[in-house]
Write a structure and sequence with these properties.
α2 packs across α9. The protein folds into two domains: about 10-130 and about 310-340, Quinone Oxidoreductase, Chain A, domain 1; about 135-285, 3-Layer(aba) Sandwich (Rossmann fold). α10 (about 320-330) links the parallel β14 (about 310-315) and β15. Strands 3, 4, 5, 6, 7, 14 and 15 form a seven-stranded mixed β-sheet that branches. About 25% of the residues lie in helices and about 25% in strands. The longest helix has 15 residues, at about 290-305. The protein has ten helices and 15 strands. By secondary structure, the protein is of the alpha/beta class. The protein has helices spanning about 55-60, 135-145, 165-170, 185-195, 210-215, 230-235, 250-255, 270-275, 290-305, 320-330; strands at about 10-15, 25-35, 40-50, 80-90, 100, 110-115, 120, 150-155, 175-180, 200, 220-225, 240-245, 280, 310-315, 335-340. The structure holds NADP nicotinamide-adenine-dinucleotide phosphate (NAP). NADP nicotinamide-adenine-dinucleotide phosphate binds near residues 161, 248, 250, 251 and 255.
Length: about 350
């Protein structure tokens, strides 16, 4: 029996300008007719979409060079999503039944140009793994930091989507000692017990320099930084001669209620960079377009062999998506956070 598509569909809009971090009160779930695809377009029934900190920057930020459009009041939220093509307009390569990834999450049905969708292959064993931010961790560790056998690697923001993969990936790339940071003692314990971090520093539970000196008595060779601010400054103070610091994110500024989400100042001793030959460089996925396919190949192999796990939290249903974003900002989750929608 043919499945009758619904007449209406829901999406999540920014409905009020936040002063500080956005919360559920700044979002509205609205209903509208299911779109009809035109030439070269498809309608995708979303099954999973990513909850990610970059939304704070897109909603409130003034950041230069962010490769995605800002979100204004009245706009639907968006972000990486995986779903099934349920209708295809004439002239495109996609057909109903294709499973695709695209950038119009935060809605049940997305009207997308077929050219903006990528069909999922079976390189990864789980479609949700395509929503992982692990390619940023892998790209930063291989393209910028060049992890060498025996290196001591410090991953800041280790309990998030990037960090929960960065530590295990650094180990698989040959790191000898892997240290993380999180503001949560409970997550610190999970990083050690579940993901094999050798030590975890907890900013806020005591001076970070002392914690780093204990965790890495000989200093660190590589920093994969998701946090910026004082945590990055401390990482530079702990860096050995020739250390490579790959900057992936800046959560300390991005998720600060007192800032606009688009900047993350840090006071770094630049004389130390000079004298110790320490490098600091920023990672943008767009600058390394070949990384995604390479990462998928290795991630798929590591997942199938059991050498790596993919920590994730699945929040069921659209209604709880705004709360999931707030919980991400509050640091309530561990690993990648996705909203899971029913198949029809
Ligand atoms: N360059 C790229 O290509 C690329 C790709 C993906 C992501 N990113 C960026 O990388 C960073 C990490 O992304 P993610 O998805 O892994 O984020 P995430 O860690 O999942 O973000 C949520 C976490 O941020 C931490 N946090 C919240 N407020 C904070 C604050 N004021 N100071 C410090 N930490 C705070 C909390 O961790 P704790 O509770 O554990 O402290 C929370 O669990 C983000 O800045 C993101 O935009 C960059």
């Amino acid at each position: 029996m043919a499945v009758v598509p619904p007449a209406t569909t829901r999406e999540i809009l920014l409905s009020a300008p936040p002063d500080g971090l956005p919360g559920p009160e700044h979002f509205t779930i609205t209903r509208k007719p299911v779109p009809v695809p035109g030439p070269g377009q498809v309608v995708v029934r979303n099954r999973y979409f990513l909850v990610f900190p970059g939304l704070r920057t897109l909603i409130g930020g003034q950041a230069d060079g962010v490769p995605l459009p800002r979100i204004h009041v009245g706009d639907a939220l968006f972000g990486p999503a995986v779903g099934e093509v349920v209708a295809a307009g004439p002239g495109g390569p996609l057909r109903p039944g294709d499973t695709v990834i695209h950038l119009l999450g935060w809605r049940e049905h997305a009207l997308v140009a077929a050219a903006d969708c990528a069909v999922l292959d079976d390189v990864l064993p789980d479609p949700v793994a395509h929503l992982s931010s692990g390619s940023a961790a892998y790209g930063a560790l291989t393209r910028l930091a060049g992890v060498r056998p025996g290196d001591t690697v410090f991953v800041t923001g280790a309990a998030g989507a990037v960090g929960t993969l960065a530590g295990p990936v650094a180990r698989l790339l040959g790191a000898g000692r892997v240290i993380g940071s999180t503001r949560s003692p409970e997550k610190a314990e999970r990083l050690r017990a579940e993901l094999g971090y050798d030590a975890v520093v907890v900013p806020g539970s005591g001076p970070i320099d002392g914690q780093l000196a204990t965790a890495a008595p000989d200093g660190v060779d590589v920093v994969l930084d998701n946090v910026g601010g004082e945590t990055l400054a401390a990482a530079v103070r702990a860096a050995r001669r020739g250390a490579r610091c790959a900057l992936v994110g800046a959560l300390s500024g991005q998720l600060s209620p007192a800032r606009d989400g688009g900047s993350a100042p840090a006071e770094i001793d630049t004389f130390r960079l000079v004298n110790q030959g320490i490098s600091l460089s920023g990672y943008r996925g767009a600058d390394h377009p070949e990384v995604t396919a390479e990462w998928h190949g290795r991630f798929g192999d590591w997942l199938r062999s059991g050498e790596i796990t993919f920590p994730q939290v699945r929040i069921p249903g659209m209604d709880d998506a705004p709360r999931a974003l707030q919980e991400l900002f509050e640091g309530r989750h561990f690993g990648t956070v996705v909203v899971e929608l029913p198949p029809s």
